[in-house]
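Hi V.,

You were right to ask for the full record rather than a summary. Here it is.
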Amino acid sequence: MRKILPYKVRMTLVKSGAQPELLKEINCARLLEILQETRVVSRAELARRAGLSRTTVGILVEELLRVGLAREVGLASSTGGRPPMLLEFNPDAALALGAQMTDRAWHIVLANLDTQARRRVSVRIADDTPQAAIAALQEGVTALTEQQAPGTILPAIGVGTPGLVDVHSGVIKSAVDIGWAEVPMKAMIEERLGLRALVANRSKVGALAELSQGTGAGRQVNDLIYISIGTGIAAGIVHQRRLYTGANSSAGELGHVTVLPDGPVCPCGNQGCLQQLASGPAIANRARARLREGLPSILGRLAGDHPERISAITVFRAAQEGDTLAQEVVAETARHLGLAVANLINLFNPELIVLGGPVGRRSQVLLEPLLEQVRRRAMAYPLSTVRIVTSRLGPEAGAIGAATLVLQQASDLIFTRR
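Predicted structure:
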């Protein structure tokens, strides 16, 4: 839900003669916020919590009932007098579209007002062009929405993409992993789908997913960092339960932090970027290089005697089975990643760090050597309050987080729609 104006601000608007429709929208949004928090409440309690008259609340509740956001569920017990009718929040009154782009696929969900995925679909992207990505997104959205009741879907879509994204313009400034630069993603989606598009980096929407319904841990913290590890590495930073994007939306480019000054050259032009040392491809490439040295390993067997099929997940599996070569690769990865994570802890003092993305969420074998490195390098005081875990959310996590971008503006979209 969007942030509601404080009561004093609303009263200032009333006294200054603000437009009645604006006041109605503000007050409806406030009642909706209370209803969502309490789940079941009487009109009298709504009036008390909102600081509005019972007459005003009675009128506004009729609007909430009309659009389906509230429903009457019976009478409360009474200590005398007529028992009040109870209202229940209906999270399925409106649904939000959210989509996350992986390397060659979209994961798309329809999420309700509680950010619970009600329907989901995955669609392959034919090639690496933005046009193919948009076409696949349209295919998936059509498949999700064509059988949905009219008027239940909010007229917007949240989108998480690779690369450095300007969240204001919706332009992907650069996505070196897939060779994109200056792609007007927001404009392309809006033209093709006819929906308002809210576009952000996929690590940022992943952070929102963890905040709203991740491991259980995310719901109870104010400051967390979500590290997405896949073909690249990026971080979504949440401070006081709000996403931090930076001055021009580029906060969280963790994959391009230098951890080895004379390391391999990165497509960004720098040397020794974390992405070149701890991403999925980097882990797989290091394992293949060790195999070419003739070191014994079960990696070849796990990859069906096709070394080109070795992935980071193959390396993790071999390490879990006690393979020495794979364990050495994991330990080296942990050294590089641990250096970056320790710096994050010292800089941001988070309560929770979540490893996610297609590689990160399956990196349990990496956790212990990573924690060992972090303990060596992070300052003791900020380290004392942080937990580091792997995400329990599946591949649709980013799509749920992207839907959250829409749900943060649900009040505007609902009442404008109606």
